[in-house]
Amino acid sequence: MDKPHQRIGATSNAHVGRDFELAAQKFFASEGLALELNIKIPVGIGEIMKDHAFDLGCLKEKVLIECKSHKWTAPNDNVPSAKLTVWNEAMYYFLATPTSYRKIMFVLRDYSEKRKETLAEYYIRTYSHLIPEGVELWEYDESTISAVQLAFNKFS
C-alpha cells in the first residue's frame, strides 16, 4: 500500500513517535531526570479542567514534556505546515497547564541546507509569539545522541 505521508524506512509514524519518546526518556535519564511515558494531569483555561496526556513527565518533579520528531517535507525541504500546527497545539496545552510545572518541547534536529536553519529554529523565528513564557525548546540530534536547549528572545 502506498503511504506518502509515512517516514521513509519506518514501520509507521506511530512507531517513529514512540521511538523518539523513548530516546527523549533515555536522554533525560542521562541528565538525572527520571521520566514516565504518558503522564496525565488536569489542564484547562479558567475553571473547567480535563485530563491531558503528555508524552513524558514526572509528577514528583513537576516536569512535562511533549516530543515531536517532525522533519522538513521531502524532497524539497518544504515547511511541514500541518505538523507545525501540532506544535502550536502543544504550546496551547502548555499554556493551559498549571504554572508550577516545568514544560519542555523536545524536538528532532532537522537541518535544511536550502533554508540554512533547523526546523526548530524556523519554528522559533515564525511562531515565537505562540510559545508561552517558561516553555523550554530542546533540539535532539540523533547522530550524536545529544540535545541542546535553544535560546530565544521572545521580544525580538
Strand order of the largest sheet: 1-2-3-4-7-8
Would you list the SSEs in sequence order as H and E?
Answer: HEEEHEEEHEE
The chain-level mean pLDDT equals 91
Largest sheet: 6 strands, mixed
Q: Report strand %.
A: 25-35%
Structural class: alpha/beta
The low-pLDDT segments are 1-7
Based on CA atoms alone, the radius of gyration comes out at 16 Å
Question: What is the helix fraction of residues, given as a range?
Answer: 25-40%
Distance between the termini: 47 Å
Helical run tally: 3
Number of strands: 8
Form type: globular
Task: Please tag this protein with its features.
156 residues; alpha/beta; six-stranded mixed sheet; two-stranded antiparallel sheet; 27% helix; globular; disordered N terminus
Description:
This protein is α/β, with parallel strands linked by helices and 156 residues long. It contains 3 helices and 8 strands; from the N terminus they run αβββαβββαββ. The strands form 2 sheets. Strands 1-2-3-4-7-8 form a 6-stranded mixed β-sheet, with helices on both faces. A two-stranded antiparallel ribbon has the order 5-6.
Give me a quick take on this structure:
By secondary structure, the protein is an alpha/beta fold. The protein is built from three helices and eight strands.
Describe the secondary structure blueprint for this structure:
Blueprint: H1 13-30, E1 36-43, E2 50-58, E3 63-68, H2 81-95, E4 102-108, E5 111-112, E6 117-118, H3 119-127, E7 135-141, E8 146-149
Parallel strand pairs: 3-4, 4-7
Antiparallel strand pairs: 1-2, 2-3, 5-6, 7-8
